[in-house]
Design brief:
Helix content: 55-70%
Order of helices and strands: EHHEEHHHHHH
CATH class of the largest domain: Mainly Alpha
Number of domains: 2
Number of helices: 8
Distance between the termini: 38 Å
Number of strands: 3
CATH superfamily of the largest domain: GntR ligand-binding domain-like
Length: 201
Amino acid sequence: MILDGRLAPGERLVEDRLAELLGVSRNPVREAIRVLEAEGFIDVPARRGAFVATLTQEQATDLFEVRLVLEPLGARLAAERGGAAAIARMKNVLAEAQSPSSERELDHLADLHSELHAIVFEMTGNAYLTAMAIPMVKRGQWVLRQNSPLRDPTAWAQHHGLIAAIEAGDAELAETTARHHVLTMRHQLRLAGQLPAPRAR
């Protein structure tokens, strides 16, 4: 609900209302709020309740700095360890994203983008890396749904190269392709005003 915008940044979260909306008791709602706070999606100021976090441009910049480290590492390990079923899943996700029938729905495209990148990290078989990377992927989805680069089918073209490198088991190429993809997405978001200009050295 946060990722697709039904719960807006800054919105106060009321446990009873959410429990009723989701058809569950307050306990799982309370646990979900605790987990989402740890992942950075919710702010819980002392004695003020819980609120949907607002992702600042500076936080988005920090996110891309982390992605530039974790995404290439994930791609390298995925290429080294392989997995035909996972590669087939990535190809299916990419085909759906580039299908004209998707009508370029931004929320759906952001979901597909997150799914594709999550599969890469799952392929690594590294539980520590996956535990760090999946929340990062979700936060990346939060950034992307606020803009429209994914509506352009050409924005997905780099994923073909990434999948091909992983399928070929070429770890160096997969790593380089993943890094280039993150840099390209960051550049597009900077051009769209979603990210600030590079920090002065």
